[in-house]
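Example record

One chain of 219 residues, shown exactly as stored in the release files.
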Amino acid sequence: MQQAQKAYKGLAMEGVIATWYAKNTARDVRRFKEVARTLFERVAPPARVLEVALGPGYLAVQMAKAGYKTAAVDISQSFVRMVGENAKKAGVAVDVRLGDAAALPFDDASFDYVVCMAAFKNFTNPLGALDEFHRVLEPGGQASIYDLRKDAAPADIETEVRNLGLSAINKLLTRWTFRHMLLKSAYTVEQIERLGRQSRFGGGSVTMSGIGFELRLRK
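Predicted structure tokens for this chain:
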């Protein structure tokens, strides 16, 4: 029997690794607030928003606070638990589920917006994930994928790491992660544009900012 393909590249974000990631990302929530503001300009509450591969759920909680009907899905049991805890502490409701981005546990046309931050490069079935984003969106719904660019300049990455407010040892670990894991998995702009065209969306627009990009799609 052929073994099923793992849904993600690299290490499983569980246990100690998930806790380390959550603590480091919690030190700098600027990007989550910036994305929340951007989405607010594009779709008004109480729109239905889904975050895919959300990690500890900082953006999902921001969206729920703003009045959106917020759902979330992640392949990590540790992150699903953390999201539930973070939402409870914030006094908001987030419908968080365990699942694969390429097989979302939601019905067709369930959402007005789908967002994915800093995780798309780790999907082993990126085209399947894009097609699932399309499936769960209402006609006219939008999707945004934010991630690292493969050609991000070393100086810009160094600035990004420096601005995270990490300890010396965590700066070293984060630099190593960028160099040996994240950049190797990241997409070029041409590659992400090609995936958009190959998907059920039929194409999208790419905007570059800092070390990353946004692929914006519409059903």
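Notes: The beta strands are 48-52, 69-74, 94-98, 111-117, 137-148, 205-209, 212-218.
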